[in-house]
Amino acid sequence: MRSGSSNFSRAQVPWGLDLAAAWSWRFLVIVAAGYVILWTINRFALIAFPLAVALLLAALVSPMVRAARNVGVPRGLGSIFGVLLTVGVVGMLLTFAGQQVVNGTKELAGEVVKGLEKIRAWLRDGPLNASDSQINDYIGQVQAAITEWSKSGALSQAADLGTAIGNVTAGFFIVLFAMYFFLADGERIWTWIVRLAPRAARQHVDSSGRVAWVSLTQFVRATVIVALVDSVGVMLVAWWLDVPLVLALGVLVFLGAFVPMIGATVAGAVAVLVALVDQGPLTALFMLIGVIVVQQIEGNVLQPFLMGRFVSVHPLGVIVAIAAGLLTAGVAGALVAVPLVAAINAVVVHLAGKAEADEIAVTDAEEELLEPDEPDPGESGPRASGPDAPAPTAPEPAAPAEETR
């Protein structure tokens, strides 16, 4: 049995157990640190989530601000324009979608009533053969339960609604101000963060942060393009099938695409449900086929082409990240989880490649030390030998190799 070569207290501990214990306590420390970080973020979610949204929006708008600065526009003015443009686009989309929902509510409500009447007729004339009195009793029980639930929770619902409105308002202003400062003073903010690290690690911290920012920028751009293609595709299918609320469905699909794999699926299910209520099962089937085709084009063509090597995250990693985000911070956590994992993945790949390059450089330096000195071809005559000959001097070791040893 192999034993460790440390002090007497560890002399009888098997080497494998010693190694496993060393890995175990380090792993536990990492897990504990991660738990503390997640708990802190969840505790201050009212601040953390708006900052994360502002960072994502800044990553999307930063190329435009940089282009404006290259043509002579001051960075502060370009940042203000980027913030206003973002607010205007989001507000316009929500306004148009809201107007269409309001205009189509009456028509959709009538279709819902017709659908309920069809269900009632099926219950009466179908295999269940339920009587009108039984159906009315069931409907009355459901209505009574809903009424009782709404009365019992009216005050708490009103309080929760007021709290939610206050949180959304505060988060909106945090997003605006944070986005502006990320765009206008992002470089100075990052320089201050890098200075907090030890001097020996500042170069690695700086390069890792810039790689993470590039990955985040690529992810946001690709996600916006994918979301736009998804929404246009679903809107075209809905328009061709004469399904109502076309623009509202497009906005829902666009916003849902920012939660990969899950958001687009939920938005597509809503589109199929609207088609089922308004047009019937056959139209809903065609709508389902159209949604599946659009999502297959997105997943197999657009995402591999647009994401590239900067945000290459395995689908299993995406699912685990979304699940962890949902458990940690709900929908907000699911929205932020995938770009966070993409940035971490890019940093890990960057540091691993940097470590491999440093190891290769050290190996080359050691090989140069082991190579014998070749005689200078310009020298003439034999070298001096004997006791009077000068002693050969060993080459001085290179600094990187000495430090590595």
From TrEMBL:
Q: Quote the biased-composition stretches of kind Acidic residues, using this chain's numbering.
A: 366-377
Which residue spans traverse the membrane? 20-38, 44-65, 77-98, 164-183, 219-241, 247-277, 318-344
Q: Tell where it localizes.
A: Cell membrane
Q: Which GO terms describe its biological process?
A: transmembrane transport
Q: Where is this region: Disordered?
A: 366-405
Which N-terminal stretch is annotated as signal sequence? none
Q: Which domain of life is it from?
A: Bacteria
What membrane topology is annotated for this entry?
A: Multi-pass membrane protein
Q: Name one GO cellular component term.
A: plasma membrane
- Compositionally biased residues, Pro residues: 389-398
Q: Which UniProt keywords apply?
A: Cell membrane, Membrane, Transmembrane, Transmembrane helix, Transport
The question of whether Transmembrane is a record keyword is answered with: yes
Checking InterPro entries in the record gives: AI-2E-like (IPR002549)
Q: Which family does it belong to?
A: Belongs to the autoinducer-2 exporter (AI-2E) (TC 2.A.86) family.
Q: Know the name of this protein?
A: AI-2E family transporter
